[in-house]
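Justification of computing resources. Each target in the renewal requires a structure prediction run like the one illustrated here; the chain below, 176 residues long, is used simply to show the kind of job we budget for.
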Amino acid sequence: MPAGITALTLIMAGCSGSSDGTPTCNAIAGGATQVDAPGTCTGCTASNPRLAIDGNLASAATLVVETAGSGTTHLRAIAQDGVVYAAGTRLSVFAESVFDGEATSHTVELRTYLDGTATGDSRQLTGINGVRGGGLARDQYFLETTSAFDAAELAHTQSTSTGDITYQIHEFCTGD
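Resulting structure tokens:
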């Protein structure tokens, strides 16, 4: 993956719930993904960003923050041109993480943007702290928005770590 922001445009379908009771949601359709890897994060990489908006909960984009990593990296899902989600729309991300060691100083946030500018809606995802040494567990994280938005982002900021952190981002979607 080249450094900086890479955009991929694709058409998507809605994501559907699974037999294990995972809620149904509507994928952020017809837009693009942007990955800032490494961005300001040294030792950060990303792969398959389009899988975070493909309408398939079984596939996933991957962000990896290596032991020496520090700074910020993100994966942003952008709606197709002309699509703006209204204030009050529930934003979801299906994601999981695993630590190979222990992160000693990091934050993970779900954020929204409108025309490339942060809306101020964000939520720190304390439950995505992962399982040391393996065992990914996919969860759905919600953000009740108070502003209109056309993009959603999962961002990792880190200053120190004693091991690698891998995020699997299965889907950005709206609704329950």
